[in-house]
Specification:
Length: about 140
């Protein structure tokens, strides 16, 4: 609870991680930033989330992820001081859930594309064999 009650704290930088802030069983709440009235901005550390987002298949997914990441800085200024930690924790969980969802969807699309490519290659190989076979029958017929 190093920042609890710190009324001058305006901005934090944190990694994107579930359960970064432990729940206080005595108070039944997240209270790391309780009473931090001026806390309005959260910056994410590390670039892993940015790399993941840029690699997502659909532009709409990338746009939604960027909006979700930026959402905390829209919501936090209007969040009561006693609920800022909980709001940040819920936001982190939401961002991670969306990233996991879009990564799974991305992998599903890639797997589907690989399957279609394999089928197309298999068909092309069959067509090639069929063409070669037909060509061989034509040459044999001319020889006879």
């Amino acid at each position: 609870n190093a920042f609890c009650g710190c009324d001058r704290l305006q901005r934090i930088a944190t990694p994107l991680k579930i359960d970064l802030f432990p729940f206080d069983p005595e108070w039944h709440e997240y209270n790391q930033f309780k009473g931090c009235d001026q806390l309005t901005t959260v910056d994410l550390l590390g670039g892993a989330h940015n790399k993941t987002i840029t690699l997502l298949h659909m532009e709409s997914w990338r746009t939604e992820m960027i909006e979700e990441i930026n959402r905390i800085n829209q919501v936090l200024p209007n969040t009561p001081a006693d609920y800022k930690t909980e709001e940040i924790q819920q936001w982190m969980e939401s961002v991670i859930d969306k990233i996991d969802h879009y990564k799974a969807e991305h992998h599903r699309y890639v797997k589907e594309a690989i399957t279609l490519l394999e089928l197309a290659l298999w068909k092309a190989k069959l067509d090639e064999k069929e063409d070669n076979s037909a060509e061989g029958r034509t040459k044999k017929a001319k020889v006879d």
